[in-house]
Amino acid sequence: MVSDTSAIASANDKDAVIKVFERLGLPAPVCRRTTTEDELVTAVSKLGYPGTPVVVKPPVSNGMRGIRVLREGAWDVRRFLTEKPQGLEISLEELIAILRRGAWPELLVMEYLPGCEYSVDAFIGSQLSVAVPRVRESIRSGITFHSRTELRDDLTEYTLAAGRELGLRYAFGFQFKLAHDGTPKVLECNPRIQGTMVASVFSGANVIWFGVRELFQEPVDNLSKPLHASEFLRYWGGVGVEAGECFEI
């Protein structure tokens, strides 16, 4: 239940996704692709660093791997003693020191988007297309722990238009973040079932089940009920076992 190989490759490349949005005239963050230390420093400077935070990330990655927010003086004594380390903020000098310890990677330098983040659960089939935007209220290690459906027409339109342009089908998703002026700009595409995609079920669109039915050429021509607001919360669980007891998973 996946799209064609070429569509997946394009959708996994964050720079390629941004270029699709630009080609369609949809909001996209300023982004520059770099392959050397000099290119990285130049791109960071052009986006306003150190006066303005800048995001650096690999073109292809997942689960927040490799992403950093460049911020001058990211950590001082007060923050060190009072805040839990998040692992995202770093200064340009600290980042360069790390990257010099191996083969220099290809990196994207992107506009920093300060607003809330959205994830959109989507489905494109032969008979039905639907997208369910939700606010990511709480995120831990890249996993949504609290999301709230917000049925924004703009995010629905952007997701389905870009998904078709990329050649995606079945279940997939996009992530967006709000810019300073409130404009939603694309972060990346997940050309697969997203980790919290089950949340869309509670808003009236079981996009995973739609994909299964499409795969088996069964009818997928209507929603079970109109899309509506809902919330989804994730909790850690635990199991206690007395000493000497046998417990099987």
The total count of helices amounts to: 7
Order of helices and strands: HHEHEEHEHEEEEHEEHE
Q: What general form does the structure show?
A: globular
Could you name the ranges where pLDDT drops below 50 across 5 or more consecutive residues?
none
Q: What would the average pLDDT be, to the nearest integer?
A: 92
CATH C-level label of the largest domain: Alpha Beta
> How many beta-strand runs?
11
Per CATH, which architecture of the largest domain? Answer: 2-Layer Sandwich
Assign the CATH superfamily of the largest domain: ATP-grasp fold, B domain
Radius of gyration: 20 Å
Write the CATH fold name of the largest domain: D-amino Acid Aminotransferase, Chain A, domain 1
**Distance, first to last CA:** 28 Å
Indicate the proportion of strand residues: 25-35%
Helix vs. strand class = alpha+beta
Strand order, largest beta sheet: 10-9-6-7-8-11
Largest sheet data: 6 strands, antiparallel
Number of self-contained structural domains: 2
Structure description:
With 249 residues, this protein is α+β, with helices and mostly antiparallel strands. The chain folds into two domains: 5-13 and 114-233, ATP-grasp fold, B domain (D-amino Acid Aminotransferase, Chain A, domain 1), CATH 3.30.470; 30-111, ATP-grasp fold, A domain (Dna Ligase, domain 1). It is 26% helix and 26% strand. The protein has seven helices and eleven strands. It has helices at residues 5-12, 14-23, 37-46, 77-82, 92-99, 153-166, 207-215, and strands at residues 31-34, 54-57, 68-70, 89-90, 107-111, 117-124, 129-140, 143-149, 170-178, 184-190, 231-233. It has a six-stranded antiparallel beta sheet with strand order 10-9-6-7-8-11. The chain has a five-stranded mixed beta sheet with strand order 1-5-2-3-4, sandwiched between helices. The radius of gyration is 20 Å and the shape is globular. The two termini are 28 Å apart. The mean pLDDT is 92.
